Amino acid sequence: MHFQTACRDGHSDVAFVATGTNLSLQFLPAGTLADGQRPLPGREFVDFEREPGMVHLKAPMILNGVCVIWKGYINLQRLDGMACLEYDEERARVRLLTG
Q: Which UniProt keywords are listed (predicted)?
């Protein structure tokens, strides 16, 4: 339940046991509201309805200076799953234009 609540709040920690890699992911676009509260993620970032017993997640991030999107799914019973990183061409283009 703690994992599901964290996902609904827009963040979670994920560990890749085989490589010893731990990531603290945020499942929403960068930015905050005027009152300092973070917006809740939409279904584009956290989707519990796509597949029963699974949550599909999407987290934009910068990894070693490269704009990427972490995309994955996690089984809600076993808390295991699969993920990949995809190059985020749109966000990289914006970063180049804004400096």
A: Nucleus
